[in-house]
Design goal:
heterodimer, A: mainly beta, five-stranded mixed β-sheet, four-stranded antiparallel β-sheet, about 0% helix, B: mainly beta, globular
Chain lengths: ~110, ~110
Protein backbone atom coordinates (compact mmCIF):
# COMPACT_ATOMS: atom_id res chain seq x y z
CA UNK A 1 0.00 0.00 0.00
CA UNK A 2 1.34 3.41 -0.96
CA UNK A 3 1.90 5.60 2.08
CA UNK A 4 2.45 8.75 0.03
CA UNK A 5 0.99 10.30 -3.09
CA UNK A 6 2.94 12.75 -5.21
CA UNK A 7 2.23 14.31 -8.60
CA UNK A 8 4.26 12.55 -11.27
CA UNK A 9 5.75 15.72 -12.69
CA UNK A 10 5.99 19.47 -12.19
CA UNK A 11 7.65 22.41 -13.90
CA UNK A 12 9.17 25.44 -12.25
CA UNK A 13 10.79 28.56 -13.67
CA UNK A 14 14.40 29.14 -12.75
CA UNK A 15 14.73 31.53 -9.83
CA UNK A 16 11.20 30.92 -8.60
CA UNK A 17 10.16 28.85 -5.62
CA UNK A 18 9.40 25.21 -6.31
CA UNK A 19 6.63 23.81 -4.12
CA UNK A 20 6.40 20.03 -4.20
CA UNK A 21 3.34 18.53 -2.51
CA UNK A 22 2.99 15.16 -0.83
CA UNK A 23 -0.13 13.56 0.57
CA UNK A 24 0.21 11.09 3.43
CA UNK A 25 -3.29 10.86 4.82
CA UNK A 26 -2.67 7.60 6.73
CA UNK A 27 0.44 8.80 8.53
CA UNK A 28 0.80 7.55 12.11
CA UNK A 29 1.73 9.68 15.07
CA UNK A 30 5.26 8.31 15.26
CA UNK A 31 6.03 8.50 11.55
CA UNK A 32 8.34 11.10 10.10
CA UNK A 33 8.28 12.67 6.65
CA UNK A 34 11.56 12.43 4.75
CA UNK A 35 12.46 14.00 1.43
CA UNK A 36 15.16 12.81 -0.94
CA UNK A 37 15.97 13.72 -4.49
CA UNK A 38 17.73 11.95 -7.31
CA UNK A 39 19.46 13.86 -10.03
CA UNK A 40 19.73 11.95 -13.27
CA UNK A 41 22.02 8.91 -13.03
CA UNK A 42 23.18 9.79 -9.51
CA UNK A 43 22.38 8.20 -6.17
CA UNK A 44 19.55 9.67 -4.12
CA UNK A 45 20.40 12.64 -1.91
CA UNK A 46 18.89 13.38 1.49
CA UNK A 47 17.19 16.79 1.67
CA UNK A 48 15.24 17.23 4.88
CA UNK A 49 12.88 15.54 7.31
CA UNK A 50 10.34 16.45 9.97
CA UNK A 51 7.76 15.11 12.38
CA UNK A 52 5.20 17.87 12.86
CA UNK A 53 7.00 21.17 12.98
CA UNK A 54 8.16 23.05 9.94
CA UNK A 55 11.81 22.54 9.19
CA UNK A 56 14.38 24.50 7.22
CA UNK A 57 17.95 23.80 6.24
CA UNK A 58 20.36 25.12 3.65
CA UNK A 59 18.69 23.17 0.88
CA UNK A 60 14.96 23.50 1.48
CA UNK A 61 12.02 24.07 3.78
CA UNK A 62 9.49 21.47 4.81
CA UNK A 63 5.97 22.53 5.69
CA UNK A 64 3.79 19.90 7.39
CA UNK A 65 0.09 20.62 7.83
CA UNK A 66 -1.31 20.68 11.32
CA UNK A 67 -3.18 17.41 10.81
CA UNK A 68 0.03 15.95 9.30
CA UNK A 69 -1.86 14.51 6.36
CA UNK A 70 0.17 16.40 3.81
CA UNK A 71 3.42 18.28 3.43
CA UNK A 72 5.17 20.56 0.99
CA UNK A 73 8.84 20.71 0.15
CA UNK A 74 9.91 24.20 -0.84
CA UNK A 75 13.02 25.00 -2.83
CA UNK A 76 13.09 28.79 -2.40
CA UNK A 77 15.04 29.73 -5.53
CA UNK A 78 15.10 26.84 -7.94
CA UNK A 79 18.06 26.49 -10.26
CA UNK A 80 18.60 24.23 -13.26
CA UNK A 81 20.63 21.94 -11.00
CA UNK A 82 17.50 21.26 -8.96
CA UNK A 83 15.99 19.33 -11.86
CA UNK A 84 15.54 15.87 -10.36
CA UNK A 85 13.07 13.30 -9.09
CA UNK A 86 11.91 14.17 -5.59
CA UNK A 87 10.80 11.42 -3.22
CA UNK A 88 8.55 11.91 -0.20
CA UNK A 89 8.87 9.05 2.29
CA UNK A 90 6.90 8.39 5.44
CA UNK A 91 8.56 6.14 7.97
CA UNK A 92 9.10 5.44 11.63
CA UNK A 93 12.65 6.03 12.74
CA UNK A 94 15.06 3.37 13.83
CA UNK A 95 14.33 1.10 10.91
CA UNK A 96 16.39 2.35 8.01
CA UNK A 97 15.72 -0.87 6.14
CA UNK A 98 12.04 0.03 5.86
CA UNK A 99 12.42 2.90 3.45
CA UNK A 100 9.99 2.73 0.55
CA UNK A 101 10.92 4.89 -2.42
CA UNK A 102 7.85 5.50 -4.53
CA UNK A 103 7.85 6.94 -8.05
CA UNK A 104 8.33 10.50 -6.76
CA UNK A 105 7.80 13.79 -8.59
CA UNK A 106 9.94 14.67 -11.57
CA UNK A 107 10.70 18.38 -11.21
CA UNK A 108 11.89 20.21 -14.29
CA UNK A 109 13.37 23.65 -13.70
CA UNK A 110 13.02 25.65 -16.87
CA UNK A 111 15.29 28.54 -17.93
CA UNK B 1 29.56 14.48 0.14
CA UNK B 2 29.86 11.33 2.20
CA UNK B 3 32.85 9.19 1.33
CA UNK B 4 31.21 6.31 -0.49
CA UNK B 5 32.63 4.61 -3.53
CA UNK B 6 31.30 1.75 -5.56
CA UNK B 7 33.24 -0.53 -7.85
CA UNK B 8 33.01 -1.29 -10.61
CA UNK B 9 30.92 1.59 -11.92
CA UNK B 10 29.93 -0.31 -15.04
CA UNK B 11 29.98 -4.01 -15.77
CA UNK B 12 28.81 -6.26 -18.56
CA UNK B 13 28.67 -9.95 -17.85
CA UNK B 14 27.09 -13.12 -19.16
CA UNK B 15 24.27 -15.16 -17.73
CA UNK B 16 25.50 -17.71 -15.20
CA UNK B 17 28.63 -15.78 -14.29
CA UNK B 18 29.27 -14.82 -10.65
CA UNK B 19 29.55 -11.08 -10.04
CA UNK B 20 30.69 -9.16 -6.98
CA UNK B 21 30.01 -5.48 -6.43
CA UNK B 22 31.90 -3.56 -3.80
CA UNK B 23 30.83 -0.65 -1.64
CA UNK B 24 33.50 1.16 0.32
CA UNK B 25 32.94 3.93 2.89
CA UNK B 26 35.30 6.19 4.79
CA UNK B 27 32.66 7.54 7.20
CA UNK B 28 32.73 4.71 9.76
CA UNK B 29 28.92 4.45 9.57
CA UNK B 30 27.46 1.33 11.09
CA UNK B 31 24.66 0.66 8.64
CA UNK B 32 25.15 -0.19 4.99
CA UNK B 33 22.54 -1.02 2.36
CA UNK B 34 22.33 -2.39 -1.15
CA UNK B 35 19.47 -1.22 -3.37
CA UNK B 36 18.61 -1.88 -6.97
CA UNK B 37 16.77 0.57 -9.20
CA UNK B 38 14.73 -0.47 -12.20
CA UNK B 39 12.30 1.45 -14.39
CA UNK B 40 8.78 1.09 -13.00
CA UNK B 41 9.97 -0.26 -9.66
CA UNK B 42 11.91 2.54 -8.11
CA UNK B 43 14.53 1.75 -5.49
CA UNK B 44 14.22 -1.61 -3.75
CA UNK B 45 16.29 -2.90 -0.84
CA UNK B 46 18.27 -6.07 -1.50
CA UNK B 47 20.23 -6.58 1.72
CA UNK B 48 21.49 -4.44 4.54
CA UNK B 49 24.10 -4.67 7.26
CA UNK B 50 23.89 -3.37 10.81
CA UNK B 51 27.48 -4.16 11.73
CA UNK B 52 30.48 -6.28 10.85
CA UNK B 53 29.25 -9.78 10.00
CA UNK B 54 25.66 -8.71 10.74
CA UNK B 55 23.42 -8.69 7.69
CA UNK B 56 19.78 -9.22 6.86
CA UNK B 57 17.55 -9.57 3.84
CA UNK B 58 15.58 -6.85 2.18
CA UNK B 59 12.62 -6.87 -0.15
CA UNK B 60 14.36 -8.46 -3.16
CA UNK B 61 17.12 -10.67 -1.77
CA UNK B 62 16.64 -13.80 -3.88
CA UNK B 63 19.70 -14.50 -6.02
CA UNK B 64 21.93 -12.19 -3.98
CA UNK B 65 24.28 -12.66 -1.06
CA UNK B 66 26.29 -10.14 0.93
CA UNK B 67 29.26 -10.03 3.20
CA UNK B 68 30.73 -7.48 5.54
CA UNK B 69 34.04 -8.43 7.09
CA UNK B 70 35.13 -4.86 7.76
CA UNK B 71 33.22 -1.74 8.76
CA UNK B 72 34.19 0.01 5.57
CA UNK B 73 33.33 -2.66 2.99
CA UNK B 74 30.01 -4.22 2.00
CA UNK B 75 30.07 -6.72 -0.84
CA UNK B 76 27.11 -7.78 -2.96
CA UNK B 77 27.45 -11.06 -4.85
CA UNK B 78 25.29 -12.40 -7.61
CA UNK B 79 26.10 -16.10 -7.42
CA UNK B 80 24.92 -16.82 -10.95
CA UNK B 81 23.85 -13.69 -12.77
CA UNK B 82 20.57 -13.67 -14.69
CA UNK B 83 19.20 -11.15 -17.18
CA UNK B 84 16.60 -10.10 -14.59
CA UNK B 85 19.46 -8.78 -12.46
CA UNK B 86 20.35 -6.19 -15.06
CA UNK B 87 19.92 -3.02 -13.07
CA UNK B 88 21.55 -0.05 -11.42
CA UNK B 89 22.83 -0.94 -7.97
CA UNK B 90 23.22 1.67 -5.25
CA UNK B 91 24.98 1.35 -1.96
CA UNK B 92 23.99 3.55 0.97
CA UNK B 93 25.26 4.16 4.49
CA UNK B 94 23.76 5.57 7.64
CA UNK B 95 24.56 6.04 11.28
CA UNK B 96 23.01 3.96 14.04
CA UNK B 97 21.19 6.91 15.56
CA UNK B 98 19.96 8.32 12.26
CA UNK B 99 19.25 5.37 10.01
CA UNK B 100 16.81 7.21 7.82
CA UNK B 101 19.34 9.80 6.73
CA UNK B 102 21.10 7.66 4.18
CA UNK B 103 24.01 8.67 1.99
CA UNK B 104 24.16 6.99 -1.36
CA UNK B 105 27.04 6.01 -3.57
CA UNK B 106 27.29 6.82 -7.28
CA UNK B 107 25.84 3.49 -8.40
CA UNK B 108 26.96 0.52 -10.49
CA UNK B 109 25.34 -0.18 -13.84
CA UNK B 110 25.21 -3.92 -14.44
CA UNK B 111 24.20 -5.50 -17.72
CA UNK B 112 23.71 -9.26 -17.81
CA UNK B 113 23.61 -10.65 -21.34
Amino acid sequence: DAKTTQPPSMDCAEGRAANLPCNHSTISGNEYVYWYRQIHSQGPQYIIHGLKNNETNEMASLIITEDRKSSTLILPHATLRDTAVYYCIVTIVGYGQNFVFGPGTRLSVLP
Amino acid sequence: DAGITQSPRHKVTETGTPVTLRCHQTENHRYMYWYRQDPGHGLRLIHYSYGVKDTDKGEVSDGYSVSRSKTEDFLLTLESATSSQTSVYFCAISELRDQETQYFGPGTRLLVL
